[in-house]
Each structure stands twice: as C-alpha cells, then as structure tokens.
UniProtKB/TrEMBL annotation:
Family: Belongs to the HAD-like hydrolase superfamily. CbbY/CbbZ/Gph/YieH family.
UniProt keyword terms in alphabetical order: Carbohydrate metabolism, Isomerase, Magnesium, Metal-binding, Phosphoprotein
Site positions (Important for catalytic activity and assists the phosphoryl transfer reaction to Asp8 by balancing charge and orienting the reacting groups): S112, K143
Designated name of the protein: Beta-phosphoglucomutase
Organism: Butyrivibrio hungatei
E.C. number: 5.4.2.6
Keyword check for Phosphoprotein: yes
GO MF terms held by the record: beta-phosphoglucomutase activity; magnesium ion binding
Length: 216
C-alpha cells in the first residue's frame, strides 16, 4: 500500500459543529426545522446538496437564485467560524498517525468534498504537509461518486489498488469502493457493511498499513 487518502471533515478535523452552527443560523432565519440528526445526513455531502436536504423541511419551494444566495450566506458564516480555528485544533492523535505514516514513506493525500479544504489545512498548520490535495474545487461530482479519490490517486501517480481511503461518512465509503479502493471506516462509516477495515480508533491505522504491506 503506497498511499493513504484521508477525508478531511470528520477524519483529520472535526468541523461538524461549525457546519451545524452555520446551517442552524440559516434554517432559523428561514423558519425551517433543523437539528443535529439532520446535520448528520450532511456528512460528506456537497454544500448545495446539503441545502437541498435542509429544504426538505421547508413549506415552500426555493428558486435556484435563492438557493445560491442562501448557500453563499451559510458559507460566509462557516468561514468566519473557521477563522477561530488554529493549530491547537489539530488532534494530537491525528498528528501522530500522520507523522508515523510519513516517516515510513507512505504517500499522504486529502480527498474532501469541501471547497474550504485549503483554508482548513492552513489553519491546522498542515498547508504543505500532504503530497496531494483533491477537494471540492477540483471535482464535478460529489461522494458517493469516486471522482475526488480518483483525482487524488492521479495526483499521487498511483493506482487505486495501491491506496487506502479513510472516511467517516457512508457516502465516502461508497465512493471509495466505487473507485476500486480499499477503505478504512471510522465512526458511522465503520458500520458500512462493505467497509474493508472498520476502525474504532484512527490510532490503529499505521498498524493496518504495515500489516497490509507485510502481506504483499
Ligand atoms: P464546503 P468532507 C464535507 O467534507 C463535509 O463533511 C460536508 O458536511 C460539507 O457540506 C462538504 O464538505 C462541503 O463543504 O461547504 O466547505 O464546501 O467530509 O468530504 O471532508
Ligand atoms: Mg467526512
């Protein structure tokens, strides 16, 4: 296994709460019911598709222009919340996992639906850390389509069978499998019936990569 492709939100960082705060602000303003359970459905889903899920509870139809305006407003709120993040928000266990893999020569990439990926990496002090960053700015189809991970593999110059994808969202596991990748699922994604390696703790990831390479 030459490379590990990490999802960002929910794996490298925990921006769920910030997405929730921003969407809640929008939903309240529009008088639409929104709770954390609905927020869970937005994991790994693009911004516009997230808005469509939220609008399922609306009592009227929204035009494309209205939706565009609302999505932009949500992003402005989310970005101002991201501004409060710093290197202190990088989980120490996540950093150990990244450093361990890197020290063994494993290529590391990001495969995220977020258009704010580069800003988040910068805030966490990881701007130049990854060998490739594939994100919401270079894809046309979001997860469960495999495009974001296939682009990451292409940027790394490797084949999907030579990489493992790490995901927290069910749609992300579907995307990895559709692209021909093995995958590690954490949280909800560990429960996916077809996940290759369900993990309780990301700290076990280097061991999985090591064992897999010893098998080959
Ligand atoms: P943005 P991931 C995803 O990131 C989030 O899980 C999802 O909740 C969000 O809607 C999506 O990014 C788009 O984010 O509005 O910043 O472009 O899990 O694929 O890293
Ligand atoms: Mg995620």
């Amino acid at each position: 296994m030459k490379a590990v492709i990490f999802d960002l939100d929910g794996v490298i960082c925990f921006t769920d709460k910030l997405h929730y705060k921003a969407w809640k602000n929008i939903a309240d303003e529009q008088g639409i019911y929104f709770d954390e359970k609905i927020n869970d459905r937005l994991r790994g889903v693009s911004r516009m598709e997230s808005l469509d899920i939220i609008l399922e509870k609306a009592d009227r139809a929204y035009s494309f222009d209205e939706k565009k305006e609302i999505a932009e407003k949500k992003n402005d709120i989310y970005v101002s919340l991201l501004d409060t993040m710093s290197e202190k928000d990088l989980d120490a266990n996540v950093k150990v996992v990244l450093d361990t893999l890197r020290s063994r020569g494993t290529l590391l990439a990001i495969g995220s639906s977020s258009k704010n990926t580069k800003k988040i990496l910068e805030k966490l002090g990881l701007r130049d850390f990854f060998d490739a960053v594939s994100d919401g700015t270079n894809i046309t189809k979001s997860k469960p389509d495999p495009e974001v991970f296939l682009k990451a593999a292409e940027m790394l110059g490797i084949k999907p069978v030579e990489a493992v994808v790490v995901e927290d969202a069910l749609s992300g596991i579907d995307a990895a499998l559709a692209g021909g990748f093995e995958c590690v699922g954490i949280g909800e994604a560990a429960m996916h019936p077809k996940v290759t390696y369900p993990l309780k703790d990301l700290a076990d990831l280097p061991e999985i990569v090591l064992r897999k390479n010893a098998d080959i």
